[in-house]
Write a structure and sequence with these properties.
Layout: H1 3-6, H2 11-46, H3 50-85
């Protein structure tokens, strides 16, 4: 979503998006923890292999997406703050 589109959204919709991003952070953290647990279990039980590193690939994609979400959340916060100062 472009920054230009944020101006068209209402305050309520922007706050909803921020709330959803925060919920997604919690879900992402749980999935990352789960995948790291799976990797540790797999290494201990079966040693290294393709299926040992596959969950790490999933973890990398989640972390990369969460960085984009953090940037989006910061932009949304700036829009809310600029509307409150007017």
């Amino acid at each position: 979503m472009k920054a230009e589109n944020f101006a068209e959204l209402t305050d309520k919709k922007i706050l909803n998006k921020i709330k959803n991003l925060k919920t997604n952070k919690l879900i992402d953290a749980a999935i990352v923890g789960l995948t790291i647990g799976i990797v540790i279990y797999s290494v201990v039980k079966h040693g290294f292999g393709f299926f040992t590193f596959f969950p790490l690939l999933l973890t990398y994609m989640i972390v990369r997406n969460s960085k984009n979400n953090k940037i989006l959340e910061a932009e949304l916060q700036k829009v809310i703050e600029s509307r409150n100062t007017k």
